[in-house]
Amino acid sequence: MPASAPLIEIECIPVLLPQEIFIEVNMATYIPLGKNPTSPDERQELIAKRVEMEESLSQLEVNYVQKKIIELLISQKGYSKDDLEVNKEFRIELADAFFNVKADIAIMLDGRISMVVKCVINSLESWERHSIAFCRVVESYQIPFAVVTDAETAKLFDAAEGKLISEGMNSIPSREEVLRMIEDVRPLVCSSDRIEKAKRILYAFDAITCPAGFTKQQI
Questions:
Q1: Rounded to whole angstroms, what are the CA distances from 132 to 28, 118, 129, 188?
Q2: Residue 206: what are its φ and ψ, rounded to 5°?
Q3: Torsion, CA 120, CA 121, CA 127, CA 132, rounded to 10
Q4: Do the beta carbons of residue 84 and residue 112 sit within 8 Å?
Q5: Closest CA to 62 of 87, 37, 42, 80
Q6: What does pTM read for this prediction?
Q7: Which end of the chain lies in a sparser environment, N or C, as judged by fewer CB atoms within 10 Å?
Q8: pLDDT in tens, 102-128
C-alpha cells in the first residue's frame, strides 16, 4: 500500500469583510411585520410600529415566551400596547396568609380585564388549574377567558365554566374576537366556597414557586 500523505498544517487567517458588505448583510435582515404591506407608505408605518414595539419590550422584564406572545398580539391579533398590562400584580388574602400573584399578560378592554395569558416554558397542563383559579379571584368580577401558552401551542379556556374552548396558536383570539365574545358574557361573582378553593390553588402554586413566602403573622 502507498505511504500516507504527510499532514500539512494550515494556518487559519481571519478575513475581514469590507464595511459595505457588513452593512449590506445587516440591511438584508428579515423584519417580521405581521402582514404584507400593500404600499410603501404602509410598509414604513409597519416598520415604525415594529420598532416602537421592540423599544417598549426592551423596557419590560419579560421572558422569551412573553415577548413572542406580545409580538403576536400586537402584530397579528389587532391589540395595541395600551390594551396589554404585563406582569400585573394582585394581592390574594386568606384567613391565615396573604401573597401576590401576577398576570403575565392581562388584556384590558372596555375598562376591564377580558383575558389573561399565562406564558410558560413547557407543560401547559400543569398551569391550567392555576389560570382558571386566577381568573376567578383576582378581581371583584370573574375574568371571562384564560389562555395558557408556550408560544408553540396554546389553550383557550372559559374561566367561569373551567372548560377548554379551543387549542392551538390560532385559538388565541384577536381583539375583535374578544370584543364579540365578551358581549355574551354576564359579569359573574363566584360563590364564597369556590373563591376559597381558587385561592388555595393559587396559594399552593405560590408555595411551590416561592417557598419562602410570608404570612400575615410573619410581617
A1: 44, 10, 5, 14
A2: -65, -40
A3: 20
A4: no
A5: 87
A6: 0.70
A7: N
A8: 999 999 998 999 999 999 998 899 999
Q: Per DSSP, what are the bridge partners of residue 116?
A: 106, 146
Residue 198 has a CB neighbour count (10 Å cut-off) of: 23
Count the residues in the chain: 219
Instruction: Report the C-alpha gap between 113 and 115 in whole angstroms.
Output: 6
- Name the pairing type of β-strands 145-149 and 112-119: parallel
Please calculate the CA angle 112-158-61 and round it to the nearest 5 degrees. 55
Chain centroid offset of residue 78 CA: 15
- The dihedral built from the CA positions of residue 102, 103, 109 and 114, taken in this order, carries a sign that is negative
Q: How far is CA 36 from each of CA 44, 65, 117, rounded to the nearest angstrom?
A: 12, 24, 27
Give residue-wise pLDDT tens across range 60-108: 557 899 999 999 999 999 999 999 999 999 999 988 888 999 999 999 9
Dist CA 193 CA 94 (whole Å): 12
C-alpha span between 193 and 162 (Å, rounded): 16
Measured distance CA(162)–CA(197) in Å, rounded: 13
Contact 108, 146 (CB under 8 A): no
Helix-helix angle 64-75:40-58, to 10 degrees: 150
